[in-house]
Specification:
Order of helices and strands: EHEEHHEHHHHHEEH
Number of helices: 9
Structural class: alpha+beta
Helix content: 40-55%
């Protein structure tokens, strides 16, 4: 039996973006359903690069930034929670939940990727923020998340404190901004086709099947 086709997918996202979680899990399900192997590569994007380190109440932040009403926030959280559960991910929203600056989180993912664990690190931080409501700007929380996927906690802490990766991550962010990525998730399929937003399992299935057919041709 021939090996399943593998396609590179560059995913630009932020760890505090719920639609990035949904979009990834929709894509993963489409890949399972079609028998396609994915080579996922995560890239940094900050939804709130100017946010103070202490963060903000999430509901207040959304009201200020997007004009989201209380009723709209309640409905959105319920919808995301339901969609996440159907895809095997737990959103655990609360009224006192806070949103944080994610620049350090992106540095940690970049560091983990060099050790072959960028994907695991991204998933761990999605869960840290959305499921456990942890402060993903706090270096102790981040170092603990690194240890949780088998990386060296002390090394992670040293890297975060030194900010050695700050310029590298800024450069990576700028690459995608230069490619007109203004919102996330944004997914580049096979280094050719850029798709933005969480497209749904059906649409991702169609994209993967088309890529498979194009390669076969």
């Amino acid at each position: 039996m021939p090996d399943a086709p593998s396609f590179r997918v560059d995913v630009v996202s932020d760890v505090v973006c719920p639609w990035c979680v949904i979009g990834y899990h929709q894509l993963a399900k489409a890949a399972r359903d079609t028998g396609v192997e994915l080579d996922i590569r995560w890239h940094p994007f900050e939804l709130n690069p100017q946010m103070a380190e202490r963060g903000e109440n999430l509901r207040d932040h959304l009201a200020s930034k997007y004009g989201t009403t209380l009723e709209g926030s309640i409905q959105a959280r319920a919808r995301l929670t339901e969609m996440g559960a159907a895809l095997g991910f737990t959103f655990n929203y609360a009224d006192d939940m806070r949103i944080y600056n994610t620049f350090r989180a992106h540095q940690l993912i970049d560091w983990a990727a060099e050790q072959g664990k960028g994907h695991e690190m991204k998933q761990a931080l999605f869960s840290a923020f959305f499921t456990r409501r942890e402060n993903v700007s706090d270096i102790q929380v981040l170092a603990g998340a690194a240890a949780g996927i088998g990386l060296n906690r002390a090394d992670a802490l040293d890297m975060l404190q030194s900010q050695d990766r700050a310029n590298h991550v800024r450069q990576k962010e700028q690459i995608w901004i230069n490619q007109v990525v203004r919102g996330v998730p944004a997914m580049m399929f096979d280094q050719r086709h850029l798709v933005t937003g969480a497209q749904g399992v059906e649409n991702y299935t169609r994209i993967l099947l088309q890529l498979r057919d194009d390669r076969a041709a």
